[in-house]
Amino acid sequence: MTVSVPRRAVLYTGGLVAAAVSGWGLLVDPPWHGATGARTRSRFPTPGPARSGEEGERGPLYHVDAGPKTIAITFDDGPDPRYTPHILDELRRHRVTATFCVIGEHAAKHPELVARAAEEGHTLANHTWSHPNLRHMRPAQIRDQIEQAADAIESASGGDRPGLFRAPFGTFTPEVLAACSEYDLRPLAWSVDPRDWSRPGSARIAATVLNRTRTGAIIINHDGGGDRSQTLAAVRSYLPKLLAAGYRFTTPVSAAEDSDGE
């Protein structure tokens, strides 16, 4: 059966195209929206559809499945000593568990922040060593980026080796998915993107999150990679509102956790 859906509502999952149901509304402004290459008007380059060429490869997670009004919040590109501690303070204040997609070289520079996130019950995800565009790298280079980051995060956290992987710019190419399969990493995408990296204003960031969040949403924000003062202000605004609306927070499952549940 052929189903026609808007381009922006299409999810690439292991090479299978799944249409978003109407209850989700606008799931995601795709990370490759409006771009024709690296660093155009959007900071996101254009990845091809994520295909699983070998048995066992899994497509990216775009949502969590943990019951009604359960969602996940993620933070990319940290840790950053200017913003990550304040983000952690807000999460602790509201008893919210998040996922931090950590850049390896930042973890090596600020291991105390990685350790704090782990100690406070947050999930750590591998976000490569130096945040390159993996589309332009050979498989061996992709594996090196993953391995270096995993080692740094494990060392900084005191033994927490990530089971989730988020590709920079959302570039989940077949080569990236193959590497994730090789290292037993679950690819992690997102479904609500307030584009906080572009600094559109804290009110707009908060409004986008509140307007687009539905059951199962994975929200992407950034605690590193630049001036994240607007993100911090937005988090302070929307977290209590989501909680007041009855949302609960969880973290996406890793490949190992998913396998245990099968």
TrEMBL record:
Domain NodB homology: 69-250
Record InterPro entries: Glyco_hydro/deAcase_b/a-brl (IPR011330), NODB_dom (IPR002509), Polysacc_deacetylase_ArnD (IPR050248)
Domain of life: Bacteria
Start and end residues of each stretch annotated as Disordered: 35-63
Membrane spanning stretches: none
Gene3D superfamilies for this protein: Glycoside hydrolase/deacetylase
Family matches, as PANTHER family: GLYCOSYL TRANSFERASE-RELATED
Name of the protein in its database record: Polysaccharide deacetylase family protein
